[in-house]
Amino acid sequence: MIVEQIWTNNPLRNFNYLIACPDSGEALAIDPLDSEKCLARAKAHGWEITSVLNTHEHGDHTGGNAAVIATTGAKLLAHHKASDKIKGMDVGLRAGDVVSVGRMVELEVLDTPGHTMSHVCLLSRTDIPSLFSGDTLFNAGAGNCHGGGHPEELYETFAAQLAKLPDSTEIYPGHDYLQNNLAFTLDREPDNTEAKTMLEALANYDPEQPKVTTLREEQEVNTFFRLTSPTIIKRLQESFTDFPDEASPKDVFLKLRELRNSW
After folding, report:
1. Rounded to two decimals, what is the model's pTM?
2. How many Cα atoms within 13 Å fall on the side-chain side of residue 149?
3. pLDDT at residue 211, as a whole number
4. C-alpha 73, offset from chain centre
5. Are the C-beta atoms of 240 and 255 separated by less than 8 Å?
6. Alpha-carbon distance 78 to 49, whole Å?
7. Tens of pLDDT along 128-155?
8. Beta strands, E only, the chain
């Protein structure tokens, strides 16, 4: 499996992806908002885009569909409940489905509600798994729930699915918010030395050469995985005077998501 992570350099800081089969040269375009860059990159590599997949229905992920499909004739895949929100869907995806790319690439569909209620992530069936996480999980952060989602559903996705993936899983999100997310972690957990070290190392960071985190790193620097940290709980009690000492992980997650909305 070949992963091409494409930095759009737009105000929303989107990443687009091409997933290619090294044997056949067929490729899957994930959320190809910048259709020109995606098509040019595929052409440069000699790849044929045969499928387009949207992780969810927001326009900054679907906006390039028409141009890519018009040029390539690719099929359009998305969550099975998104057919009334994403124009021209050919295939509705459900949890456990497998998206094949060429002869060698298989990606398992995860149904991951929270950012929206019709959101999918893709998990590669490779020795080192790759998670294409859309706007559910960011490097060092979590998606918001403003555009048709729900924070309680997002928590369940994190707790029941993402936290149980292999530690070696590499995270490929829909946007680059890494430095801001690390700053939020340090605001909530000032004694997190791993987050501080990572942020310092990104002083000259260029998303054209993106940092790919692993789930093991996320568990160290992503505050939305660090729900039992005494420092985080203490800091939440400073922000919410009625926040209990024995707060559940869900309570911590929901308050962190609330704070991040306006941070």
Report:
1. 0.96
2. 27
3. 97
4. 26
5. yes
6. 16
7. 999 999 999 999 999 999 999 999 999 9
8. 2-7, 15-20, 26-30, 48-53, 75-79, 91-93, 98-101, 105-111, 120-124, 130-134, 137-138, 141-142, 170-173, 213-214
